[in-house]
Amino acid sequence: MQDTRLRSAAQLGTTIRMKRKEKGLSQRGLAELIGVERKWVLRLEAGNPKAELGLVLQALSALNLRASLSDEDRPASRDHRPASPSRLDEVFRQLQRPARE
User: Fold this and answer.
1) What's the CA gap between 49 and 61, in Å, rounded?
2) 35's torsion region: left (phi>0), alpha (psi -120 to 50) or beta?
3) What mean pLDDT, rounded, does the chain reach?
4) Which end is more exposed in the chain, N or C (fewer Cβ atoms within 10 Å of the end residue's Cβ)?
5) Would you say 60 and 45 are in contact if contact means Cβ atoms under 8 Å apart?
């Protein structure tokens, strides 16, 4: 599957359904992998805009899909690297550091 730019919950749901079918998983099978009821997967695939983000991320992980964010207001350089780090870049770096005891 190639990278796809998603603009709505419906597009995300369709993508998840396609990947689930590609992997030969039933809705029930995906639900079991992420610890939800089949009805939750059904609603997610139908484009539920109120789906819990944590569970959506678990569904993506179970299907070996990744989500990424990009700042479309910032122009990229000609070699497709970001022009300069944004404040969000620093926040994400902080979140990825191991927790201190």
Assistant:
1) 19
2) left
3) 84
4) C
5) no
